[in-house]
Amino acid sequence: MMDSILDTEQMYAADRAAIARGISAYSLIDRAGVAAAEQIHVRWPTGKILVLCGPGNNGGDGYRLASQLHCWGRAVRVMEYAPQRARSAEAQAHREQCLVALEPLDETAFEAADIVVDALLGMGLQRPLSAALQTVLQSLQASSASICAIDVPTGIDGNGRCWAEAPLQAALTITFFRKKLAHVLAPSRFLCGEIKVVDIGLCEEDVTPPSYLYENQPALWQSAIPWPQPLQHKYQRGAALVYGGSEMTGAARLSALACARAGAGATTIACASDVWAIYAQSMQSVMVKRWHSLSQAAALSHSSTYQAVLIGPGLAPEPSTQELVMRSLLQTQVSSWVVDAGALTAFASQPESLFEGIHTSAAQVILTPHEGEFARLFPDLALHSNQKNKVERARQAAARSGAIVLLKGSDTVVASPDGRAAVQTQSSPYLASAGSGDVLAGMMTGLLAQGMSPWLAANMAVWMHSQAGLILGAGLIAEDLVQSIPTIWQQIGRMN
Ligand SMILES: NC(=O)C1=CN([C@@H]2O[C@H](COP(=O)(O)OP(=O)(O)OC[C@H]3O[C@@H](n4cnc5c(N)ncnc54)[C@H](O)[C@@H]3O)[C@@H](O)[C@H]2O)[C@@H](O)CC1
Ligand SMILES: [K+]
């Protein structure tokens, strides 16, 4: 079973469940402190350590780890922020038992330390930082010390929400039991530096109800990979249809090639007859079908010739596209659909009709918006008009639309209407380039054509796309992503 990712509430609930089955709150801090000390000692075997302890249990972890490092002979100082604040009995007990002298916080000491441990605030952060605390963070950041955050870098909460003008940037973040949203979503993930998850005696059964949020890793979809069988012919591997636009013809061509390289046995582009020659001249392994009317175009997906359809790349966001989507989707016999790009924006003025179409259709649909397209379809869930985190926004969009929603970005989230969600945590900024999304949609369509479920195909395609970005790096263009798909397949093959 894969480790799930928790939000702050789920982590507090898991702590309570562990306490209820007999692990004391004191012992949780004990375990957290010792485990964190081990990580720090391994990562920085030498050097002077300064531990900054805040008023809550995050500070409690700080006192405990300082004692442990002291026992191992490390040079440790402990400085307290807001020592007069009331603290939990367990944090107070660890404070009283701290083997290192407690000093008031003194910013001038930062420069003398090689490693500063930030145990100021953790999951309990729930209001904007005071100006005084922000100044402390600024001096710390300006110092040459390496910063190790306990649980989360001070300034962001466990769900990744930022409460500081400039939250701390850590080199290492040590967290407990499971990663929290802050460790996987952007931009907070980038403030954590390297992330180490340590065991403090909690188990998955302590998470009730279970969390259905995961990191997108091969373990999520590996067992469902549609490896071709020796006796299969090309149509048994899966046939895919890609609707091509009349102006931006490159998009559907990229998608179709990615679809074929993702393993569809036969890929067809369908386009209006006046642009047929453009497609036909440039495609070789991909077939090109022409249509003369919208109803002819829609009818292509009314038979069971294809197992997957991609509609949107290169299509104009206009009423005719909306009509094509509705006409084809409502009577489709193709089981899996990807609706992307122009086919999403075409519904900007009436997204409910798209959702109604999806609910009515026999097909399972994946919507693949970036934040801009998402805002057009789900204005109330858009990034700047909704306080909720990206996972929650995508989950609500999936529930509303009845589709798998793949919300793109440096932390692409795939959310299913049934509540499952996954976050892609490894990605490359070079993927933000023209045509990259067309390749992603094509790869997904290719996997769907081979019979993968939409949930798994969406995640696997996102992972493959990210890997391609990481391997290619600077200088990549969308065409390179298509070319690199065989390399990614080889990489996946070696994992089996
Ligand atoms: N049983 C548990 O709850 C465990 C907690 N652990 C640690 O405890 C942390 C959570 O502990 P807490 O819930 O006590 O939370 P924190 O230690 O993060 O902070 C809570 C304290 O900070 C204050 N505070 C909140 N926002 C503030 C702000 N903007 N400026 C100044 N003070 C602010 C609160 O009033 C409260 O006193 C975790 O992040 C983790 O490090 C670990 O020891 C594992 C077990
Ligand atoms: K912290």
TrEMBL record:
The chemistry this enzyme catalyses reads: (6S)-NADPHX + ADP = AMP + phosphate + NADPH + H(+); (6R)-NADPHX = (6S)-NADPHX; (6S)-NADHX + ADP = AMP + phosphate + NADH + H(+); (6R)-NADHX = (6S)-NADHX
Q: Which organism is it from?
A: Paenalcaligenes hermetiae
Name of the molecule in the record: Bifunctional NAD(P)H-hydrate repair enzyme
PROSITE patterns recorded: YJEF_C_2 (PS01050), YJEF_C_3 (PS51383), YJEF_N (PS51385)
Record's superkingdom?
Bacteria
Which residues hold AMP?
A: 408-412, 437
- SUPFAM superfamilies (UniProt xref): Ribokinase-like (SSF53613), YjeF N-terminal domain-like (SSF64153)
- The positions annotated for binding K(+) are 58, 118, 154
Every copy of the YjeF N-terminal domain together lies at: 11-208
| InterPro entries per the UniProt record, alphabetical | Carbohydrate_kinase_pred_CS, CARKD, Nnr, Ribokinase-like, YjeF_N_dom, YjeF_N_dom_sf
What Enzyme Commission number(s) does the record list for this chain?
4.2.1.136, 5.1.99.6
> Which family, according to UniProt?
In the C-terminal section; belongs to the NnrD/CARKD family. Belongs to the NnrE/AIBP family.
The record places domain YjeF C-terminal at: 217-492
